[in-house]
Amino acid sequence: MKQLTHNDVGKYWDDNAEAWTKLSRMGYDVYRDLVNTPAFLEMLPDVNGLYGLDIGCGEGNNTRLIADCGAHLTAFDISSKFVHYAQQKASEDQLNITHCIASAVELPFPDKTFDFAVATMSMMDLPEQEIALAEVYRILKPGGFFQFSICHPCFTTRRWKHVRDEAGREIAIECGDYFNPIVNEIEKWMFSQVPTELRKGIPKFKVPHFSKTLSDWLNIIIDAGFTLKHFVEPYADEETAHKYPAVADTRVVGYFFIVQCRK
Ligand SMILES: C[S@@+](CC[C@H](N)C(=O)[O-])C[C@H]1O[C@@H](n2cnc3c(N)ncnc32)[C@H](O)[C@@H]1O
Q1: Looking at the domain assignment, is residue 192 inside a domain?
Q2: What is the signed CA dihedral for 7, 11, 14, 19, rounded to 10 degrees?
């Protein structure tokens, strides 16, 4: 298979956009809604009155939540369908968010435009992560921050299996092939909580994946010129895990990490 570029990746996401928007708005993106986004917002510095950029905004759920914190947001995605859905909902909700179609590796903004940038679960989806980080650095004002979340590279490895006890409870993850990261591979999957009936007629998402080791991630952030400020591995607290067993497995290993860095 030829090496995928960000534009190839964009086509896969455009094909996912309709089902992804429908299902996530029905509440099936449980890891986002119950684990990742709450931790992301808790970690976010005060953005009231600041000018920010949301990179890979998807259908815009997280853009809207950050706009609710008082930020002036510009949000973009490489998929025109996602941008359409995000724009439509922001307008229904009477939120003043600027949307555009663009790629993270070619940001259509002048140097030093934004006070901050965010990217929720999009930075691991592009093959040119170093270029994207350099672009974010370029468009931030000095002192501006970038906060992004990705799948945790240590626990979402090429070799990966649930380990369960006699009662079927997940107790561990078997990981391997860590130093042979996933590159240029299309993963086919669906939000785990979508009921069987609803799955009929909805094709699985096809998501190109590009992983790196943890040290590679840290080094490309540092090489882009950023100073690391804060690092969080979100997981469901006991009450959430009890109430929503679907996310209880986030207490076994860190499925995600969120990093905050400054220019
Ligand atoms: C897992 S979704 C996350 C969407 C949203 N941020 C959220 O948390 O719900 C990843 C998003 O990244 C977008 N994406 C992938 N490559 C991109 C690129 N080069 N530039 C901009 N967006 C990109 C996809 O179209 C998709 O909307």
Answers
A1: yes
A2: -140
Per-residue pLDDT tens over the stretch 96-111: 999 999 999 999 999 9
* Domain, as residue range, for 116: 6-262
CATH number at residue 182: 3.40.50.150
51 three-state secondary structure = strand
Which tokens sit at 216?
A: 């590679």
- Pocket lining: 120 vs ligand 1, CB cutoff 6 Å: yes
The per-residue pLDDT for 235 is 98
Query: DSSP label at 114?
Result: E
Ligand 1 near 82 CB (within 6 A):
yes
**What pLDDT score does 168 carry?**
86
Residue 1 lies in a domain: no
Residues of the chain with pLDDT under 70: 1
Give the nearest ligand 1 atom to 82 CA: 27
At residue 1, the pLDDT reads 67
Mean pLDDT of the chain: 96
Question: Measured in angstroms, how far is the CA atom of residue 242 from the centroid of ligand 1?
Answer: 30
Tally of structural domains, the chain: 1
The per-residue pLDDT for 170 is: 85
Asked if residue 170 is part of any domain, the answer here is yes
Half-sphere exposure of 210 (CA within 13 A, CB side): 18
For residue 228, report the distance from its CA to the centre of ligand 1, in Å: 23
